[in-house]
Amino acid sequence: MDRKQFFLFILLSAAVIIGWQVVMRRYFPAPTIDDQAETSRPSDYQPAQSNKPPIAAPDKTAIAAQPNKTTAAAATKQEKTQASERELTVDTPYWTIKFNSRGAVATSWILKKDKKPNGVDREIKSANGTPLELIPQEAVEPRIYPLSLRTPWSPDIGDLLNNSNFKIEGVPEGQTSIDIASGQRRDLIFIYSSGQVESRKTFSFSGDDLVFKAATSVRSGATEQPVEIVIGPRIGDQSDTQTGSYSTPPQIIGTTLADKTDRIIGARATPPFGSIVGINQGERQITIDKPVNPDISLINIVSSAKDKEPFFIATAKVVDRDNTGRVLTLDQIPTGVRPENGVAQAVDTIRSQFRWAGMVNHYFAMIAVPESPINEIALSNINLMSGDGSRVVRSYPLVAIPDNGTLRIFVGPKDRDLLAYVGSSLGVDLGSLIDYGIFSPVIRPLVPVIGAALDLGVRLFHNYGWGIVFVTLVLNLVLSPLRLQSSKKMKQAAKHQPRLKELQDRMKRLKADASKKNERELEQLQREQMEIMKEANPLGGCLPMLLQMPVFWAIFVYLTISLDVRGAPWILWVTDLSAPDRLHILPIVMCVTMIAQSLIQPMPQSTDPSQKMQKMMMTWLMPIVLTYFFFFSAPSGLVLYWMVSNVAGAGIQYLINQRTKPADEAAPPPGAPSPVRTGGPKSGGKRFKPRAPEKEIAGSIK
Fold first, then answer.
1. How far apart are CA 486 and CA 492, in angstroms?
2. Is residue 313 within 8 Å of 336, Cβ to Cβ?
3. What is the pLDDT of residues 153-191, one digit of tens each?
4. Where are the domains of the chain?
5. Mean pLDDT of the chain
6. What does the pLDDT look like over 366-377, one tens digit per residue?
7. What is the DSSP string of 257-314?
8. Looking at domain 87-267+350-428, does it have CATH number 1.10.540.10?
9. pTM, 2 dp
10. Is 450 helix (H, G, I), strand (E, B) or coil?
């Protein structure tokens, strides 16, 4: 297909999509909610166009992508659900879940234990030692909770259902809890009918798993509505406030049939695309600096498009727009909106063939696995200012997963063995939930070995900190032959450095002369330089160190992602190896050991002032800078590993220096000819006698 055919294909495709939407809206309008449905809403219900973010938002592209299921038969009025708002707690060996009948959503999800394949479960607590809450408990209104519904054909239906009281089937009105013991199963069924809209949500729990099943159905009249289940927002330990490069912010994740994993942090899910430049209160219109896509019918208004983390102000529904797409007529102008506020798309859609998708943070995940691959996922995010007075902006991303039959939903820790076990039972690979970084192909195979070694250390010392110390010492001893080889190469390079410098200076002078009488001598000097470089190439000392880097990097990754390190104490003030040292004692000691190791490391001697300055910066300045900017905020377990590795490395290097000291004493003095064969094996081992310095030659001529 040439370029002209490609552009023609794009234009025809766009015409078909736009034409399809026009025909569907004109001749097959989406069913509306009648007056009886409106009267069934609770008194405190707020519609989607209020000043607060909705749990679900319309996506007209998704409407166009769906076939028309409306039948010619008239809708039969069903009996309306009469139910009051109530809470029901479901308690299993692994979870304590609190459901609210208003929307049939989960308002609290406490994770109690980590399920181990060997049958020995481990208790899990939050970062501050309280029960581990996975759902935000601060007021995020209206109704942004896991297991809410999104109906892409008719967004108002999803908004109605998320704010209506469901009846809990088979659970008496006075009952407030259900206990599901090991070996038991229980279905929790929520039903709702407004007379025009019907919905049924079924959640199936087992007392032996960290996976439950969810099946939903929504019918408006005679039309079966496509429905999506919301995962999120901000799933994870709600007490963990650690930020920075050593933590993973809440993010949306999905894996396609091509085994490509997409990760989208909240701030990038629906970023601002423009700014408000004018407001007309009387006409309920705003003017923005960039045109809005015709498919966008719901927008989020944020603080400013220029802010790094623009915080949420209000949501508004677009009811009309001018031909330029820059003047938007809203259902209402939200309170507090002003020029220079940013405008963002409320909901975005990613289309691909997904095996599974969900929400993750650094240690925990909520993942939905459909029965068959899904064609798209819907993303949304709002940034809210923290209510604790710190003015920290927190993101609340969520993802809506199409329910194409029954969704199997995993809620639990990102434990490597657990994910392998659960993934095997669900027929998918959940290993990509753990982010091993850009060197994943090299690091991932080493992680099980490192994990087994650390487990052995913990069994020996009954303390994860001492286990890290033990494994680090053993690893340095095992890799000491490589360190010895590297040290020998570096010492050889340092020994011949003066001679190489002399050769370089002489060749520079001979090249400047450009006389033919110097060609033979220049060739001999170059040959001698090559022979010295073969024997004492400084890069040869780097190669053994490079071979060690995958192992050291794998330990680095393991200690930053492992759930075993989370909450594990060491000694005295170090009560959590996954958290930074609040007294900064470990980072300071580590900085000292880094300087000591640099001082004892063999380095080529040089009289060049620039190289001396570079050596001083590498020895003194770099450890201080790294400690302040990186290790002060690093997990204590990682700093402990690095500190012990420095101490062990310095000790081993000292022994190597003592062992190779006689060789240093036998080294030729600076300026002396190097006893290096220049002719090679074929030349019979003939040695090159360097030419006398130029000053001496000039004196003999006189």
1. 10
2. yes
3. 888 899 899 999 999 998 988 899 999 999 999 999 999
4. 27-74+268-349, 87-267+350-428, 464-508+527-665
5. 76
6. 999 999 999 999
7. TT-PEEEEEHHHHS-EEEEEEEEETTTTEEEESSPPPTT--EEEEES-TTSSSPPEEE
8. no
9. 0.73
10. helix
